[in-house]
Amino acid sequence: MIASPVLILGARSDIGKALARGYAAQGCEVILAARNDIAADATDLALRTGVQARAVLFDVTDGEPDRFFEGLGAIPGTVVMVAGLLGDQAESAAVDAAAQQVMDSNYNGPARYLLAAARRMAGVPGGCIIGISSVAGERGRASNFVYGSAKAGFTAFLSGLRNAHARAGLHVMTVKPGFVRTQMTAGLKLPPAVTAEPGQVADAIIRAHRARRDVIYTLGRWRPIMAIIRAIPESVFKKLSL
Amino acid sequence: MMPHVEPLSGWGRYPVRDCAVWQPVTAEALHATLPPLGRSIARGNGRSYGDASLNPEATIDMRRLDRLIAFDDASGELVCEAGVLLSDIIDAFVPRGWFVPVTPGTRMVTIGGMIASDVHGKNHHGTGSFCEHLLWLDLDLGDGRVLRCSHQENADLFAASCGGMGLTGMIVRAAFRLMPIESAWMRQQTVRARDLGEAMAVFERSHAWTYSVAWIDCLARGRDLGRSAILLADHAPADALDATRRAEPLARPPRQPRAVPVDLPGFALSSFNVRAFNQLYYAMQRPGEALVALDPYFYPLDALTDWNRIYGRRGFVQYQCVLPLAESERGLRRLLEAIATAGSGSFLAVLKRMGPASFGLLSFPMPGYTLALDFPATPANLALLDRLDAIVADHGGRIYLTKDARLSAPMLALGYPGLARFRELRAQHGLDRRFSSLLSQRLEL
């Protein structure tokens, strides 16, 4: 069972948009939260599927999660945190403000918003919180460790949140999509065999949500790949360029 | 907004070029992107076959402008952004009893692409091309102007944009009417024709059928020349269905798409294999009546994603021409003889009777017969196509730009009397300085 309404935090991203369409196609009421006004996207969903859909403004780094949820006018049955920022590792290494932006967008903001959600969702039948984390959080690599470490923190946060609320019936799911062809990765050379389309990621998430899975890789191939990457001894790993 | 560079091609995978690609998320973002660019071209879902959607300097990926804007349940009028996929419209509206008035042979096209190509379907003889059902479109001219274009407003730009290959500006949104259907099923009748004359006779007496198309064995020669299977169809009314289907007449059986996993090697398409395939296919088209689900009827190849890979890495070219009615039989005979002699058969050779021409200045259809084929992009085949061009020109026909990757500018001008006016309008509005594609550069559009 999927509890409505489904609140999508970061609904303008490609994965957020695909999720909104996926949940709406299942007949769920959807609330789209994004930094810009995306009322047109809500209208689109309603026309496509006949479900209720509305748009609200949301900035993951604004530090006002309680005010956001109070203004929502309803307690969501499902919350999906899609917001995040890949950033540029070289820029993060060189400029403090850039590093802070990546950390705030991938750990501080998402964690605080989901804490605020969890405070309100105790007792919601079938309630579920879903966090989109990343395979980049499984091991710090020179090429993206500011982003990766924030995602590592977010993964640990989701694990703890799940543990804290499991007995009360609020489910928490961690999603590690791997490469996805989105605006965030436009122009990057991605290996096709381990790269998913946003629609595939959304389908995998909704399937896993129904099955109340704890942690998923949206493409199963990532599981053995990450197992190997985690198993490389640090003394060797530090000399690799991955 | 920053572009990224990626190798792009049309559906035929010939030619392939590195293009700088912008991906605007809204019409407003697109509007802000255009003015500082030099010449650019819109690209939808990349289903035109050749180089129409390629511009190495600036290609605009329109697929994120994909919102439905309004729908009127009483009239069937739909307003949407240009990047909406036809497949999304079909998925959303067939269950509610609506279908598009005109559909091409794939549902994986954008509405903007359907307009820019003024696509036709198997119902062209009675219903005309897609743009005949268009109420209006909004055109971003790239110089700060966004114009509503219709038969009433900016009618000259409307006529140039319908079938205008994206060269009159960026189509950002459009309105058209959907058509009511009672069921998601088609009543199909298959008729065999032993030769070209018989096939044409079947078409000429079948105007009452909503849809008609013939698959033609283009390797058949001599007295078998033009041997074909003609598929005639109508939307099935609900009361023509059996009790089970009548309970849910608009339900569609699920289709699981399969993918072609790898590029097939070149020899897979040897003339022996193609000949065998064509004979087998002909034998499989059993004459008689059948009830067919809507999706496999209209979109048989969409069940096989990436079917273009059967032609291997070198890619393929589609060739589609139309000949005026009075010249059709003689011209088709010459075309089919030239193809059969070359022995370069095509898996998919399609023949169809077309109805009246559209108002679009560069629209493809004209009353007569259209023949569509595809060939691996080999030097021998490209030389054959030049010979086919000459035959088409001899008989006063024209070539479909949406499928083209290799026509020459002089050949184009012979077939399109609206071309001079099209060029004039492009110059008058400064569009020739803002929009171009590899196709427009090659054909001097």
From TrEMBL, chain A:
Coiled-coil regions, chain positions: none
Gene3D superfamilies (alphabetical): NAD(P)-binding Rossmann-like Domain
Gene Ontology cellular-component annotations: membrane
Keyword Oxidoreductase: yes
Pfam families named among the record's database cross-references: adh_short (PF00106)
SUPFAM superfamilies per UniProt: NAD(P)-binding Rossmann-fold domains (SSF51735)
Swiss-Prot/TrEMBL keywords: Oxidoreductase
Entry's Gene Ontology molecular function annotations: oxidoreductase activity
Domain of life of the native organism: Bacteria
NCBIfam families linked: PRK07102.1 (NF005489)
Protein family per UniProt: Belongs to the short-chain dehydrogenases/reductases (SDR) family.
Descriptive protein name: SDR family oxidoreductase
